[in-house]
Amino acid sequence: MGVKRSLQSGGTTLGFLANFFIILSSASNYWIRYSGGHSGLWQECNEGVCSNIPCDSRLMVTGGCMVLAAGCGFVGFVMGLRILCNEGYSRGQTTCSVFFISGLLLLIALTVYTVKNAWKDDVFYSWSYFLGWLALPFCILAGFCFLLADMIMQSTDAISGFPVCL
């Protein structure tokens, strides 16, 4: 397996992990902990009783961006699998862009959520929130893996016509 194939495999694996972390982070309700309960994007639990969170524009932006990031991550993962399974399918730049868009949406969501809760004294961020931040470098690294693999493929195509003796 060459460098290009290794980068494509690594990008697909990183994309899968990023998407797994995004979905797990979005689905759970342990984004913040406070005395007497915990809260997530969709539900709030106080003393063992969980209820839906009333509409808040910042939570809607966070939830929407997280869902869109998961969707982009899934599309990027499927495109990565297609690149791995079909050697002639060279959409490395598109796959790279999809993972970068997923990372950007994730960054927007997590920044909005951080700003929303930054001034509360009794609030502590929990594991779901940190899983979201852990997914961010995985998205970016997956994008860079596909970008580098595409650059290797383009440079190999560019020099294939030159008579090079090594």
From TrEMBL:
The gene is CLDND2. This is Claudin domain-containing protein 2 isoform X2. It is found in: Membrane. Pfam families: PMP22_Claudin. PANTHER family: CLAUDIN DOMAIN-CONTAINING PROTEIN 2 (PTHR10671:SF30), EPITHELIAL MEMBRANE PROTEIN-RELATED (PTHR10671). Keywords: Membrane, Transmembrane, Transmembrane helix. The chain crosses the membrane at residues 12-32, 61-84, 96-115, 127-149. It comes from the Eukaryota. Its main location: membrane. It comes from Odocoileus virginianus (White-tailed deer). It is a multi-pass membrane protein. InterPro entries: PMP-22/EMP/MP20-like (IPR050579), PMP22/EMP/MP20/Claudin (IPR004031).
